[in-house]
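Hello again, I could really use a second opinion on something today. My current little project is about how a certain protein chain folds up. You're getting the sequence in one-letter code plus the fold written as tokens. Here's the protein in full, and shout if anything looks odd to you:
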Amino acid sequence: MSETRANLLRSTPFRLALTFAFLFLLAFILSGAIVYQLMSASLARQLDQSIKETYSLIAATYAESDEEDLTTAVRDHAQFSQDKDQIFSLTDKNGNRLAGDFTASGLPEGFSMFAADLPGVSPGTEYRAYSGTVGGNNLTVAFSLSETEDLERIVLMSFGWATLFITGLAVCGGAVLASRVQRRLDGIASTMVDVSHGRLDARIPLIGNGDDIDAVSAQVNAALERLSALVDGMREVSANIAHDLKTPLNRLQMILESAADKTVSGEDVSTELTDARAESQQINSTFDALLRIAQIEAGARKARFVDLDVGPVVETIGEVYADVAEDDGKSLSTMIVPDTKWYVHGDRDLLMQMLANLVENALRHCPPGTAIELSVTGGGGHVLIHVNDNGPGIPAEEREKVFRRLYRLDASRTTPGSGLGLSLVKAVADLHGAAIALEDRNPGLGVTVSFPAVASA
């Protein structure tokens, strides 16, 4: 229990709750003090008004050279106030009492305060008095402050109890809220500990109320999803590299062993050296492609992005590969609407590399007689580049896999290539914020890369 209390006191949410509770309590006390002062002033004004009205009522009974009615009025008022909350004094100019409860002496005209010592009244009871001259006589009307003081005392006690209640409520509420927030923070910390120990499938639990902690937790979970996918991809790439490079490395070792044997026997090894160089170049090409993909995914080329028209890029690729396709028994055509500009924000060299890889992929895996078509269209705020063919296509279940590094279909394992061409295409598209879609054209494959369109440069 003591450890739990210590953890609660060290909790940032609990300290924040206490801070806000203290500020609220301070504001409550200040506002209460202001209200108390305003109430006291209002009660004092009302008391003075009541005293002055009573004084005026008694003074109005006086008629010139006739003190009888004035004396009677003072005597009647004194008799009606049995509890001495109101006391009255009427004295002549020599200070002799004519009527009333007490003899007022030494009180100035107007309002004043004095402590009365009267029978039936607690010693030192404070009175508020108003004195004046009526027909040559001194009239004093005094009201006790006991009722006002009792009311103020009740208000102060109520305010004190309210302060204690609010303080306890703030502390308890802060503890409850802090414990709830702390449990959620502990859940985040526990998830991070699990991730640090290699459990990349761990996720922060969400309560679904959409608050700040939920929003941050969702972002962290999304980051963990990307991290998990990245690590899985790295594992897959590592396994693929180990698998796909094992064969050329074994071939290279066999070639070098054969060359070594021929060297011992004095035979010519030029053929083996040529084969060894070809194998090493293929291995280097694979690593170069992997490095280039990594650089593209890191966003290093974004600084070179400009607004450009992709029409000339597509036309250039079509012109470069048209003869290659013809030599290979295939056809390559380019269709672009004349006098139309298709602007995107990107890197010209990377876009050309992307299109070249798509065209080469179609040329490599399609049989003679295949027709390949390059085209550009637009609509809905996007620029679409299409690479279509009427070749064998790609099975639907394989279309997402072909963008993985070093992934090759079973039918293409006997053809040249490293399995990185479409991976580079995906990396370039992602860098440009573009989406790639593969669709069945019955027969053939349609590849559409959708770029966000920009205004004309």
Notes: The first strand starts at residue 86 and ends at 91. The mean pLDDT is 82.
